[in-house]
Amino acid sequence: MKNIKQFIAAIACFIFLGCATITPEQKNALGVEAARCLLTAVEKNDDGISPADTVALGLISSCQAQIDAYDNARVPDKLTNFGAAFWANRMNGWLKQATTIVLQSRVEKKR
C-alpha cells in the first residue's frame, strides 16, 4: 500500500503540480509500478508461442504510462546532452528488460 501512495503522489506531482523534483522514495515507487505493470502484462498477454521480443513490445505498449512516469523521474531534463541521449535510446533498454521478463516467465511456467 505504501508504494501505491508514493506512486500516486509522484504522478500527481508531475501531472497536476508540475514538480521539478521528486524524492528517491517516489522515484522508487514509480520504478516498482512500472515493473509490476510489466509482470502483470506478461501474465495476461504471453501466448508462449510468439517471439519473446514481439511480446515484449506489447508489454511496453500496455505499460507506457508507467514507463514514461519512471523515466521522467529518472531523467527529467531532456535538453541536456545526457538527457537527449537517454530519451532517444531509452526504449532499447526497456525492450531488453521486457524481453527478459517474457523469457523468465516462460521458464517459470515450465517448472
Which helices and strands appear, and what pairs or packs with what?
Layout: H1 2-17, H2 24-45, H3 52-62, H4 64-74, H5 81-110
Helix pairs in contact: 1-2, 2-3, 2-4, 2-5, 3-5
Verbal overview:
This protein is mainly α and 111 residues long. The chain has one domain (31-110). Helix content is 81%, strand content 0%. The protein is globular and about 45 Å long. The model has no long low-confidence stretch (mean pLDDT 87).
Largest sheet: none
Percent range of helical residues: over 70%
Mean pLDDT: 87
Q: How much of the sequence is in beta strands?
A: under 5%
What's the β-strand tally?
Answer: 0
SSE pattern, N- to C-terminal: HHHHH
Tell me the number of structural domains: 1
Number of alpha- plus pi-helical segments? 5
Radius of gyration, in Å, reads 15 Å
Low-confidence stretches: none
